[in-house]
Amino acid sequence: MSFIGQKLQKRFVELLKKVEIFTVPEIDALCFLTTVLSVDPRFSLIRVARASRGRFSRKMLARVLRKYAPVQDRILEALHRQGVHLAGRRFRFFIAVDDQLVKKRGKKIFGTRRWYDHVAKTSNRALCLVEVALVVKGEALFVLPYLVRTSSVPRPASSASRTRITREQDAKTAAAMALITQIVIWLEEEGVARSKMGVLADAWYSNQTFLTFVRGMKLLFRVAGKKNYHAELPDMKRVARRKKGGRGRRPARFVKTRRLDLHFQTVQAHGSFPDPASGKRVAWKMAIVTLKQGGRVRVFRFWRVGCQEPQFLLTPATYTSQPAPKTVYREYSWRWRIEEAHRDLKQQFGLRKCRNRADAVVLGFVGLVYSWYTLFLLTRQNGHLAPRERVTAPQYQDEVIEYLYGEQRVVFA
Questions:
Q1: Closest to 300 measured CA to CA, from 268, 329, 265
Q2: Is the overall model pTM greater than 0.90, yes or no?
Q3: H/E segment holding residue 302
Q4: What is the per-residue pLDDT across 73-95, written as a single tens digit (0 to 9) for each?
Q5: Residues with Cβ within 8 Å of residue 76, at least 6 apart in sequence
Q6: For residue 383, with 0-12 CB atoms within 10 Å meaning exposed, 13-18 middle and 19 or more buried, which class applies?
């Protein structure tokens, strides 16, 4: 096998031995599963059992996945600790938040619900996974999943004794907040201060519930906004009308709302800088506003040359010193690491290949895939943050295919 493949299996076996509940044949079965996931286009436990040539049966593979489900948190915590030690404490740790849908067919698969796909603009039956990725200096070192088992979360009954059902956004936001809380606890156990932590998220998580949570955790945040968000501005006409008095109803509220894109047409603070990736010029504007749905924030508007629409980023309004616009722009660009993780997990690490229905098998499979991928992220750094020297996921997949098919070690029926 390739050099990185050998190191992956060696480190994975060491983690499994520390758990002390797996036998040697079960450890071999888990290693065989992780290897075949990157190769077999029609993955199933029956095909894996046949490919093992009698070494593992289908029932044994299912039993191993059920056994792995309750211990995956311990293994992921150990991997998180390795990632923090690799990065050190000199840099800021960013927690990138996102979610993805893994489409499934059939109503009996555990965890599948009908979710709205904002890319395809349609509802599909799928597994919904909310994820956080630990990003340091633009490198993803750790990915932690959360399987959202229901698209509606019951709230306390109202005065009319009826239970209100929240939307999909509330279910995903609750999952994201639980993941961020867990990551913060793990980071603090390793001696990382909250001043060295930050949150990166797209516009889906720019709701007031999420922003209030991040402020309460005292974390830095870089969250995308939309141009149709409304900023609350003082209404001087109503103030003058109140002072003037006279007949009629006096206004009690002296604010008006205005869309962000219209408000930034009158903002004076502006400048430009070159894009760190492409070199194109990026024009920026900055303003501190009170959003109707997000509270008081510092909003940056970035407009890169060649783009049809500007990009709005929400950051904390309170700073000891104002952040540089170029720094804010570069840090938010690191959120793309979690999008790359979605691609690698689905295309090279077999996240969407599980066909089993049982709850423990599904949970064990998801945990196994994410543990193996996180181990890959840590192993390819080769002991230090080296973005130029790292092995990509497609390269790893090609090496595994060459190892298995080139020497006919595995033959799929």
A1: 329
A2: no
A3: strand 295-304
A4: 999 999 999 999 988 888 899 99
A5: 142, 144, 367, 370, 371, 374
A6: exposed
Of how many residues is the chain composed? 413
Which residues are within 8 A (CB) of 86 and not within 5 positions of it... i.e. 6 or more apart?
A: 141, 378, 381, 383, 384, 385
DSSP state of 154: B
Compute CA distances 26 → 16, 71, 120, 243, whole Å.
10, 14, 40, 80
Please identify every stretch of the chain with a pLDDT value under 50, giving residue numbers as ranges. Answer: 153-154, 157-165, 408, 411-413
Q: How many CA atoms lie within 13 A of 212 on its CB side?
A: 10
* Angle (nearest 5°) at CA 280 between 278 and 286: 115
Structure tokens at 25: 């044949």
* Tokens read off for 155: 């709230």
> Shortest CA distance to 167 belongs to which of 115, 121, 208, 94?
115
> Which pLDDT score, from 0 to 100, does residue 320 have?
65
As a whole number of angstroms, the distance between CA 224 and CA 205 comes to: 8
Q: Tell me the one-letter amino acid at 95.
A: I
Alpha-carbon gap, residue 334 to 354, rounded angstroms: 30
pLDDT digits (tens, 9 = 90+) for 339-382: 999 999 998 898 888 778 888 888 999 999 999 999 999 888 76
CA atoms of 309 and 321, how far apart (whole Å): 29
| 60 Cβ contact partners less than 8 Å away, ≥ 6 residues apart | 25, 26, 29, 49
E strand segments, 70-167: 93-103, 113-117, 122-136, 139-148
Tell me how far apart the alpha carbons of residues 165 and 153 are, in angstroms, rounded to a whole number: 6
The values of phi and psi at residue 53, to 5°, are: 60, 45
Which positions ≥6 away from 65 have C-beta within 8 Å? 33, 356, 360, 361, 364, 365, 368
Angle between helices 336-347 and 393-406 (to 10 degrees): 20
Residue 312's DSSP bridge partners are 225, 301
Cβ-proximal residues to 33 (8 Å cutoff; 6+ apart), any chain: 48, 61, 64, 65, 368
Give one DSSP letter per residue of 169-212, joined into a string. Answer: HHHHHHHHHHHHHHHHHHHHHTT--GGGEEEEE-GGG-SHHHHH
